[in-house]
């Protein structure tokens, strides 16, 4: 892969400082002095209109007059001069500009200058970081292009912050704790370069082992999520968010009223596999623990102590933080009963009595570490008569080296146990002055493990060929409403859309007068429900627009007139189409639920689930997730709610048909993916019991689509691209299916690689591997479809799928080019598979806006090179390795074939 396009910004060899100055207190003086003092190994060029020498170095009046190449320019002058400076930089060949200067939002002139400068920068291919930034630092390279005047240590953590003030506070705090950085990036206004691109650079940066983010708002959620997910697969990422209570989620439905933007951000981070914390201290503590490779597999904690008081307080902290106290196994209890004094606590916390010897401590902790019900152990030592803090500490250090489970050590006191703390620091053991800090870190590790599991979830299309939704039917309903200028679908229309996606609904039939209502009720069968039908009334019960359990025609006629009168009195301005007649569903064991969709300004559609009924906003019982979702994610949503606790057998009620409920949530996810016009939706109540699930009421709010929106452009996480699934025919008449690879293809992919000949495996992987490692298998089948694609060619025989070939690409960080690979099973070669599959891959890449496809082919692989030439690739010898050939294809749309007269 070629160097990241942000390399001129983050690792420049030659830097010009525009506005470099000797004037005390100026930004130009601070930045240039820091660069000089930082032992930067590259060339520094001061640029100053009024002075010929700055800091003892000859200065030029313009960047374009510098004798020698310039990778990056740091601009410290007033922003009104920026357009001219950017133009000079463009002519000089500069590729990165750092705006280390504040600007005022209210100054229209500066805004106009920024807009003009950005336009010029795009023309020359220059990337701009800022403005309003503290600056950019690479402590590991001695590069400090900032106005920060305190020490920043070199280390393996990268810090990226949207706030200059918060960034300086973090740096000061980190220095006092001895924490160092590979990079420090103050993003500022992020008018050009933003989080997603910076994360992509840091993922590839060998100096960075962990990433710390401060985020206030996100401009490009899709790029942000894709970059976060890519980073979290290889490096721990910890995020602190400011502005949690700035609510960007607004709308007409209950689903929108129940959700805050902070909740959506939490859901997004969970899906990205990163950890969110609340404070600066938590940010660095979590990062240090994660970077030290501490991991847990769950949230079950055992507490071992020689003081019941501190043990109980620690248990209280665990409850407060949502940490589960482990229930020790019978085998562990038997071992502890045999080894400990008779008056030990006989439970968790494990109080091993105040006079506990080092060996007694080791025995108890070892039993807990070996217990399969325990995910981590907190050891609390209190110095008492007869205890030996240092020997106990030495035994704990040895025990930690033996165990894969984490231990958290809290030696209470100060001077008496200082030697033990020094030992823990040297041994790099996790130790804390207070047990509650240890529990907080354990909670964060458990959350990180959970989020890493969420990261692995790549929802595939719904199982079974018979559940394909009738998307065209749903779009026709939406199109009809849009044609009438309506944003709100009626209950009948909403239910028709749901039915098109196989969501069970209670049918609604419109009656325009009482006579028609009576005929419909007779046809449906009593008892029935009457509901007002109006595009202007969202909540029918608010205007008395619902009558339940109507048993006969006289009651129906009376109810019809009463509903109309109440609705007209409450909302005289509302358009009333009539009254819908529906069957009255009575189920003794039913639970009322709500499923909804809301829209977040940054992350787009969000699915909500919780308790339903008319008191939904009072109950405040809901969980949410970004679509697309799968079975695992749906189960996690249900488990998070209070109503979820009573969906199983409850008192005298049988369990809800859970598979039917999960199916509804999966189909709602599918609906959101395929219908970008859907902005909000309430399905409330959803009646669920042992017989199944039924949507009794529904309302959908639609929105116009932006022009030229690409497939799934409305979503923060790219779903499975169903539209790319298609059938084809080989030259010998064999029917095949071409489709994007899914996570469940792992076994088929492994078999495919195992069955390749040694020559084919070497040509593809340039090594003599026999099969894919587990990490490679995950990497090849759990895809982020926004930035990579793998298309498999499948043949079905006797209900079993066989993979004949696979073609894949991975997008370069510039989002314009990609690197591809192709492999075809040996016994299926020569049947035209390569041409068919590569043309499908070209189409997928073009759909993502990619312009160039590049690959590396062994020079001896004559068959592949012949195919590449046939497909229009340019072929050239690799400049660094003559055994390799580079093939390149321009992906601009193919010209139409000339017509034959």
TrEMBL record:
Top class in the EC scheme: transferase
Keywords assigned by UniProt, alphabetized: Acyltransferase, ATP-binding, Ligase, Nucleotide-binding, Transferase
Domain N-acetyltransferase as annotated: residue spans: 736-898
One Pfam family it belongs to: Acetyltransf_1
Position of the signal peptide: none
EC numbers: 2.3.1.-
GO MF: acyltransferase activity
Record domain ATP-grasp: where: 495-531
Name used for this protein in its record: GNAT family N-acetyltransferase
Native source species: Vogesella facilis
């Amino acid at each position: 892969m070629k160097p990241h396009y942000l390399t001129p910004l983050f690792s420049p060899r030659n830097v010009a400082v525009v506005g470099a100055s000797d004037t005390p207190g100026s930004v130009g003086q601070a930045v240039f002095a820091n660069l000089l003092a930082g032992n930067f190994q590259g060339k520094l060029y001061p640029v100053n209109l009024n002075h010929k020498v700055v800091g003892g170095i000859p200065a030029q009046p313009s960047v374009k007059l510098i004798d020698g190449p310039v990778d990056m320019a740091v601009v410290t002058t007033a922003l009104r001069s920026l357009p001219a400076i950017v133009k000079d930089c463009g002519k000089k060949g500069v590729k990165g500009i750092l705006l280390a200067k504040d600007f005022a939002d209210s100054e229209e002139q500066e805004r106009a200058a920024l807009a003009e400068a950005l336009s010029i920068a795009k023309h020359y291919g220059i990337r701009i970081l800022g403005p309003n930034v503290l600056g950019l630092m690479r402590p590991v390279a001695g590069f400090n292009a900032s106005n920060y005047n305190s020490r920043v240590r070199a280390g393996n953590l990268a810090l990226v912050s949207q706030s200059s003030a918060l960034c300086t506070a973090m740096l000061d705090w980190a220095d006092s704790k001895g924490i160092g950085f590979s990079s420090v990036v103050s993003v500022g206004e992020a008018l050009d370069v933003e989080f997603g691109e910076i994360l992509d650079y840091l993922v590839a940066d060998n100096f960075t082992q962990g990433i710390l983010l401060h985020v206030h708002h996100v401009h490009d959620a899709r790029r942000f999520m894709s970059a976060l997910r890519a980073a979290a697969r290889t490096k721990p990422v910890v995020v602190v968010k400011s502005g949690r209570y700035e609510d960007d989620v607004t709308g007409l439905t209950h689903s929108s009223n129940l959700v805050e933007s902070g909740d959506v951000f939490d859901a997004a981070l969970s899906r990205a596999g990163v950890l969110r914390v609340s404070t600066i201290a938590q940010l660095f503590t979590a990062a240090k623990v994660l970077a030290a490779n501490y991991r847990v597999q769950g949230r079950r904690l055992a507490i071992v102590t020689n003081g019941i008081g501190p043990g109980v307080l620690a248990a209280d902290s665990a409850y407060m933080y949502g940490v589960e106290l482990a229930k020790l196994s019978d085998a562990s209890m038997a071992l502890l009963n045999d080894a400990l004094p008779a008056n030990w606590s006989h439970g968790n916390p494990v109080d091993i009595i105040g006079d506990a010897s080092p060996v007694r401590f080791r025995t108890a902790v070892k039993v807990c570490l070996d217990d399969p019900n325990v995910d981590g152990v907190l050891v609390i030592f209190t110095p008492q008569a007869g205890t030996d803090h240092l020997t106990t500490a030495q035994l704990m250090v040895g025990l930690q080296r033996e165990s894969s489970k984490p231990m958290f050590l809290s030696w209470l006191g100060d001077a008496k146990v200082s030697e033990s703390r020094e030992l823990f620091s040297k041994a790099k053991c996790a130790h804390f002055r207070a047990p509650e800090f240890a529990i907080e870190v354990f909670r964060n590790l458990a959350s990180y493990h959970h989020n890493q599991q969420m990261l692995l979830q790549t929802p595939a299309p719904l199982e079974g060929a018979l559940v394909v939704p009738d998307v065209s039917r749903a779009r026709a309903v939406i199109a009809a409403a849009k044609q009438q200028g309506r944003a709100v679908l009626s209950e009948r229309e909403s239910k028709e859309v749901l039915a098109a996606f196989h969501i069970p609904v209670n049918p609604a039939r419109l009656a325009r007068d009482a006579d028609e209502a009576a005929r419909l009720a007779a046809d449906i069968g009593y008892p029935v429900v009457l509901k007002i039908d109006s595009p202007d009334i969202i909540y029918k019960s608010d205007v008395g627009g619902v009558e339940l359990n109507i048993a006969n025609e006289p009651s129906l006629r009376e109810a019809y007139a009463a509903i109309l009168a109440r609705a007209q009195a409450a909302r005289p301005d509302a358009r009333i189409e009539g009254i819908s007649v529906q069957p009255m569903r009575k189920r003794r064991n039913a639970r009322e639920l709500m499923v909804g969709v809301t829209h977040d300004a940054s992350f787009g559609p969000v699915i909500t689930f919780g308790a339903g009924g008319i008191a939904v906003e009072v109950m405040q019982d809901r969980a949410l997730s970004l679509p697309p979702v799968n079975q695992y994610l749906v189960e996690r949503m249900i488990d998070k709610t209070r109503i979820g606790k009573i969906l199983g057998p409850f008192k005298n009620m049988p369990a809800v048909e859970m598979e039917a409920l999960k199916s509804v949530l999966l189909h709602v996810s599918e609906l959101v993916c395929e219908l970008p016009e859907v902005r909000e939706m309430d399905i409330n109540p959803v009646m669920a019991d042992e017989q199944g699930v039924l949507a009794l009421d529904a309302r959908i709010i639609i929105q116009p689509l932006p022009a030229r929106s690409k497939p799934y452009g409305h979503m923060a996480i790219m779903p499975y691209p169903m539209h790319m699934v298609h059938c084809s025919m080989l030259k010998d008449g064999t029917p095949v299916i071409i489709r994007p690879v899914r996570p469940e293809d792992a076994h088929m992919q492994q078999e495919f690689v195992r069955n390749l000949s040694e020559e084919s495996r070497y040509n593809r992987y340039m090594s003599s591997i026999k099969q894919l490692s587990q990490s490679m298998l995950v990497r090849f089948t759990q895809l982020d479809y926004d930035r990579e694609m793998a298309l498999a060619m499948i043949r079905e025989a006797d209900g079993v799928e066989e993979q004949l070939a696979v073609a894949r690409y991975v997008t370069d960080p510039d989002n314009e080019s990609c690197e591809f690979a192709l492999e075809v099973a040996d016994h299926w070669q020569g049947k035209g598979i390569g041409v068919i599959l590569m043309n499908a891959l070209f189409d997928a890449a073009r759909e993502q806006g990619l312009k160039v496809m590049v690959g590396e082919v062994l020079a001896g692989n004559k068959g592949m090179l012949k195919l590449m030439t046939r497909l229009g690739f340019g072929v050239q010898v690799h400049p660094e390795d003559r055994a390799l050939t580079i093939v390149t294809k321009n992906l601009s749309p193919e010209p139409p074939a000339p017509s034959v007269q």
